[in-house]
């Protein structure tokens, strides 16, 4: 059942036609929100019908030819423990009835059937089924929240934020302690594609790619998979996999291409160990990924094979990288320009060949670009376009000049005073959007994109301007609408939940009580007394 209003399905099983007819006409099935979906004259036929129609309730005679009621129940309950069995028994069959209850029957009634007693019994059965459904929905909600929290946690640690680890000591003995490697999957020409897609098309495409990647991951032993930057997904594989990393990457590319018609590339890191190493292996996989710059699109690139750091003749200038990152963080253009000059002198002093020099610069550029992205300083700036520009410049001098200009312009943009009116206007726009779409499954990525801000920047500004976090404001809008409905209508509480964005009525009630200090029913009763 997808909605509470859907009817529960009932199967009648009895070898006496007169009892079947009386059950069909004497019970107010519509009032019970139930419908008869089948009837059988013996247990064998019932067994086949149960597999075909998957009923919720079975009303069965306890003594029947071929297969009796208890045998029927023993056969089907192990496959579906939520099935409600109600047995009809004769006065001389008390032992059978007691045995039925011991084996898991919901209840039994004696012949001749008291229809009022049966109706009361069915109401109790409906209550049990409603509670089971609500529990299932609650578990689904918890599982979804758990999955989202897990994805956020992995993304935060990959970005280098160790704070989640402080509260998640249970992960110390997780599957990542046994060794793993990372694959970064990115759609080719992502910025070109998103320029062609509307916001809704982009959401649908990314949702489709995510489903493809997740299904592929389930079939290939992936430990976890989560979206990272736009158009990019991270997969973590156990280090013990016998399949070669290149073969895995090629298989993944083929799968995405087959089902989406979109091409992608995969960068794969070397093996590591421990969840705290996510932020260390991500740059390795990302740097490997951008080696496609030399080989064309839709490829698999492994950092051990392509990384300049693995070349024994040329040492990667890690200290210069660290200093350049600091110049980005402090928005210091002069320092950055001087450091790029140092980088050029370093390459020149070692007489590094052009191809190796380009690879070194690509690794450096990828790292710096990611830091610009994290600080929301790379709006409308294509990494692929920057790498292509470097590739077509003939000399080291021209490359270093281009880098100083490109990165310098972004630093200048970041140094400009923030236009508070424009910022407030963007946040107000997102508030109106939330107020109009609170009943939908809103994501923070969707709303921050509307504001043309990175997720982290949006979170900071939204809290500063509104006083709410994103989730707090969505909940506030939902609760205000729920109060309005409670005050102005007689709509049932469980019907209000989906109207304000909650598929689980019990969870809605919990959130409402936490926000208002009252259950929805208590709130409605108090308001009614005040009006009267």
Shape designation: elongated
Describe the biggest sheet?
5 strands, parallel
**Ends distance:** 39 Å
Indicate the low-confidence ranges by residue numbers.
1-5, 164-173, 305-312
What helical percentage do the residues reach?
55-70%
Rg on CA atoms, Å: 32 Å
Structural class comes to alpha/beta
Strand content: 5-15%
- Average pLDDT, rounded to a whole number, is 80
Please tally the β strands and state the result: 10
Number of helices: 24
Pfam families: GGDEF_2, HTH_18, Response_reg
Protein name: Regulator of RpoS
Keywords: DNA-binding, Phosphoprotein, Transcription, Transcription regulation
InterPro entries: CdaR_GGDEF, CheY-like_superfamily, Homeodomain-like_sf, HTH_AraC, Sig_transdc_resp-reg_receiver, Tscrpt_reg_AraC-type_HTH
Outline the structure in words:
InterPro entries: CdaR_GGDEF, CheY-like_superfamily, Homeodomain-like_sf, HTH_AraC, Sig_transdc_resp-reg_receiver, Tscrpt_reg_AraC-type_HTH. Residues 428-526 form the HTH araC/xylS-type domain. Keywords: DNA-binding, Phosphoprotein, Transcription, Transcription regulation. This is Regulator of RpoS. With 532 residues, the protein is an alpha/beta fold. Helix content is 59%, strand content 10%. It has helices spanning 17-26, 43-53, 69-76, 94-102, 115-158, 163-166, 190-196, 199-219, 245-260, 278-289, 292-295, 303-306, 318-329, 333-349, 354-374, 383-391, 396-415, 420-437, 444-450, 455-466, 470-488, 493-499, 505-516, 520-531; strands at 8-13, 34-40, 57-61, 84-89, 107-110, 180-187, 224-227, 232-238, 264-268, 300-302. The strands form 2 sheets. Strands 2-1-3-4-5 form a 5-stranded parallel beta sheet, with helices on both faces. A 5-stranded mixed beta sheet has the order 7-8-6-9-10, sandwiched between helices. Helix 19 (444-450) packs across helix 20 (455-466). The protein is elongated, with a radius of gyration of 32 Å.
């Amino acid at each position: 059942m997808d909605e509470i209003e859907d009817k529960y399905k009932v199967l009648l099983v009895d070898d006496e036609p007169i009892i079947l007819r009386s059950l069909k006409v004497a019970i107010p099935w519509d009032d019970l929100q139930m419908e008869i979906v089948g009837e059988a004259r013996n247990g064998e036929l019932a067994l086949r019908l149960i597999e075909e129609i998957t009923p919720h309730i079975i009303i069965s005679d306890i003594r029947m030819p071929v297969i009796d009621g208890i045998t029927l129940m023993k056969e089907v309950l192990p496959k579906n423990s939520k099935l409600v069995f109600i047995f009809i028994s004769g006065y001389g069959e008390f032992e059978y009835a007691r045995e039925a209850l011991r084996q898991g029957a919901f209840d039994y009634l004696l012949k001749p059937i008291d229809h009022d007693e049966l109706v009361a019994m069915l109401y109790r059965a409906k209550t049990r089924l409603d509670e089971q459904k609500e529990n299932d929905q609650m578990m689904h909600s918890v599982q979804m929240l758990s999955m989202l929290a897990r994805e956020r946690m992995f993304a935060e640690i990959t970005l280098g934020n160790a704070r989640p680890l402080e509260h998640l000591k249970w992960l110390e003995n997780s599957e990542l302690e046994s060794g793993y490697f990372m694959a970064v999957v990115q759609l080719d020409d992502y910025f070109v594609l998103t320029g062609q897609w509307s916001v809704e098309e982009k959401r649908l495409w990314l949702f489709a790619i995510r489903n493809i990647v997740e299904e592929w991951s389930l079939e290939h032993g992936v430990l976890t998979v989560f979206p990272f930057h736009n158009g990019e997904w991270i997969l973590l594989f156990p280090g013990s996999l016998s399949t070669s990393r290149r073969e895995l990457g090629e298989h993944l590319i083929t799968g995405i291409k087959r089902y989406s018609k979109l091409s992608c590339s995969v960068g794969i890191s070397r093996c590591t160990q421990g969840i705290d190493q996510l932020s260390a292996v991500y740059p390795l996989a990302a740097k490997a990924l951008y080696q496609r710059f030399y080989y064309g699109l839709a490829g698999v690139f492994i950092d051990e094979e392509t990384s300049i750091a693995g070349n024994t003749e040329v040492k990667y200038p890690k200290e210069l990288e660290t200093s350049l990152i600091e110049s980005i963080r402090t928005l210091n253009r002069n320092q950055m320009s001087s450091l790029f000059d140092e980088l050029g002198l370093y390459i020149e002093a070692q007489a590094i060949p052009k191809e190796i020099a380009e690879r070194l610069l690509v690794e450096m550029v990828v790292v710096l670009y990611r830091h610009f992205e994290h600080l929301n300083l790379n709006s409308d700036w294509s990494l692929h376009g920057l790498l292509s520009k470097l590739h077509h410049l003939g000399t080291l001098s021209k490359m270093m000049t281009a880098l100083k200009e490109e990165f310098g312009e972004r630093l200048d943009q970041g140094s400009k005073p923030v236009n508070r009116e424009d910022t407030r206007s963007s946040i107000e726009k997102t508030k109106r959007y939330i107020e109009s779409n609170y009943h939908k499954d809103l994501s923070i990525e969707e709303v921050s994109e509307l504001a043309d801000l990175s997720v982290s920047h949006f979170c900071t500004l939204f809290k500063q301007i509104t006083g709410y976090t994103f989730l707090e404001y969505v909940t506030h809008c939902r609760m205000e609408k729920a109060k309005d409905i409670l005050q102005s209508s007689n709509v049932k509480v469980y019907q209000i939940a989906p109207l304000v964005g909650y598929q689980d009525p019990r969870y809605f009630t919990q959130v409402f009580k936490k926000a208002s200090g009252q259950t929805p029913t208590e709130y409605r009763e108090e308001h009614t007394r005040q009006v009267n």
